[in-house]
Design goal:
Helix content is 40%, strand content 17%. The protein has one domain: Glycerol-3-phosphate (1)-acyltransferase (3-Layer(aba) Sandwich), CATH 3.40.1130. It is α/β, with parallel strands linked by helices.
């Protein structure tokens, strides 16, 4: 309830304040699990991605944020769940897989942290691992203009990356890296449009 109310209000604010534009939303599958990956330059990025999509999205957020009273409560209301970023967090991985297998949308910033320069950083393999384990597509998203206070925001949604059959059987690190890099190449291509 709170999620859909905030979704509407923030979309209106983004339209008035940042003249935002969403391009390619038709590429987002309308049902079934999906991993959404995006570049990350601003604290506003999760909000923008969440408001751009026509389906609710769940984000992993660093566990430290959930320890800040009202912020932790607010993040949970917005369908986020905690992750330990400094180690392999089995509970967060289990939660992510359960969400994907039940047909939900999971949002991940493969770079792991915000890019200070705006240049794409080397992606981590977590998004690829989850997509392969849950057998769901990856949808690349490029965000432009989220850094700053008055710039126009443009959200570009790319075509889904469907996984090759061969990767469904215990992919190795090399396959995970290839898929992660393929997703980020598509994000880069969208950024250059």
């Amino acid at each position: 309830m709170l999620y859909s109310f905030l979704w509407r209000v923030i979309r209106l604010i983004l339209l008035i304040w940042r003249r935002w534009q969403v391009i390619g939303i038709e590429h987002l599958p309308q049902r079934g699990g999906v991993v959404v990956v995006s570049n990350h330059v601003s604290n506003l990025d999760p909000v923008v991605v969440g408001c751009a999509l026509t389906r609710p999205i769940h984000f992993m957020a660093k566990i430290e944020l959930f320890k800040i009273g009202i912020i932790g409560w607010f993040l949970r209301q917005l369908k986020s769940f905690p992750v330990h970023r400094d180690k392999s967090d089995r509970q967060a991985i289990r939660t992510a897989l359960e969400l994907l297998q039940s047909g939900e949308v999971l949002g991940i910033f493969p770079e792991g942290t915000r890019s200070k320069t705006g240049e794409l950083q080397k992606p981590h393999i977590g998004a690829a691992l989850l997509a392969i384990k849950a057998d769901v597509p990856i949808v690349p998203i490029a965000l432009k203009g989220t850094k700053g206070f008055f710039t126009k925001i443009v959200v570009l949604v790319g075509e889904p990356i469907y996984l090759p059959e061969v990767w469904h059987n215990r992919p190795g690190k090399e396959e995970l890296e290839k898929l992660s890099e393929q997703a980020m190449r598509q994000v880069a291509a969208l950024l250059n449009k």
